[in-house]
Specification:
Radius of gyration: 14 Å
Strand content: 35-45%
Order of helices and strands: EEEHEEHEH
Number of helices: 3
Shape: globular
Helix content: 10-25%
Number of strands: 6
């Protein structure tokens, strides 16, 4: 996917697309997992990247204010269609794109 980097938040690298839709890429299990930390620190806000990852599930916003993570096998079709649901992938790799690569 060709996306723009927004920020690192908790265990996630947050990206967005041309339409402003947010996608979360999980880069660590918990705050003690430092395996990909050196790699994600190279990400620049607003820069475009080609990002690859494995589908993990959705962050679903329900009646409560606390978002709920649901694994891919637990998600209903209604939750997939929900505008407020945020897709979550396990970060595999990314590469920075130049401006002409974004358009094609």
């Amino acid at each position: 996917m060709k996306l723009f980097f927004q920020e690192l938040k908790g265990n996630y690298a947050i990206f967005y697309d041309w339409n402003g839709e947010t996608v979360y890429y999980k880069y660590r299990i918990n705050k003690f997992d430092k395996s990909k930390l050196k790699q994600v620190r190279k990400l620049s806000e607003g820069a475009a990247y080609e990002v690859n990852g494995l589908w993990e599930g959705l962050i679903v916003f329900q009646v409560s204010t606390v978002p709920l993570f649901k694994k891919a096998s637990e998600i209903s079709l209604e939750e997939k269609k929900e505008k407020s649901s945020i897709p979550v992938f396990d970060l595999v790799e990314f590469k920075e794109l130049s401006l002409d690569e974004i358009l094609y």
